[in-house]
Amino acid sequence: MNTLQRAWRHAVTARLSLRRHFTPAVLETIEATVRACETRHPGEIRFAVEAGLSLVDVFAGLGPRERAEDLFSALRVWDTEHNNGVLIYVLMADRKIEIVVDRGVAGGHVPQSEWDACAEAASRGFRAGQFEQGAVAVIESVSSVLAKYPPGSPGVRPDVGDELPDSPVVL
Fold it and tell me: Which domain holds residue 19?
């Protein structure tokens, strides 16, 4: 997709569309899912969704991955005792899901294919217009990966409690 097409998509993907798909009830379900999933592993999950980027950012070439990495920092997902934060970022205008993982999650040794499979779980739901199911699917998939590759170092207390808010971030 060229820059003008992308700019158009970002300009017309209104916050109204975001609010239509991510209603207060859907946001409550996302929060409850994060809370429940975090009881099964020591990782910390944040879920963020954004309708579109500013046109300045689009024309500057800011991509979904770079935006997700910026938000990973801005939302302080990195700021956990065991570096075990995971950000799930949805950029609706680009129809992209990015998963950014802190270095303490299995020492960075989780195969990228596993994170890609998590993102695909959400994409299937979103493509079908089932945004609640897609969000729940990606959170549960990420949770399964975190349970399989627990964050933390040997000899270190594996879970220090709920360090990050469970509520989703709507940008």
Answer: 3-170
What pLDDT was estimated at residue 9? 84
- Beta strands per DSSP E along 40-164: 44-50, 85-91, 96-101
By the 8 A CB rule, do 44 and 80 touch? yes
Nearest Cα to 151, choosing from 121, 110, 112? 110
Mapped onto helix, strand or coil, the DSSP state of residue 6 is: helix
Contacts of residues 106-110 at CB distance under 8 Å and 24 or more positions apart, as own/partner, are: 106/149, 106/150, 106/151, 109/149, 110/145, 110/149
CA dist 35 and 37 (Å) reads 6
Residue 113: other Cβ atoms inside 10 A: 8
User: In CATH, what number is assigned to the domain containing residue 70?
Assistant: 3.10.310.50
Between the alpha carbon of residue 28 and those of residues 37, 60, 79, 101, 144, the distances in Å are 14, 34, 24, 23, 21
Question: What's the pLDDT tens digit per position in 2-61?
Answer: 888 888 888 887 667 788 999 999 999 999 999 999 988 888 999 999 999 999 999 999
Of 118, 122, 104, which is closest to residue 159 (Cα–Cα)? 104
Q: What total number of domains does the chain contain?
A: 1
In terms of Cα–Cα distance, which of 161, 165, 135, 164 is closest to 29?
A: 135
**The pLDDT value given to residue 26:** 97
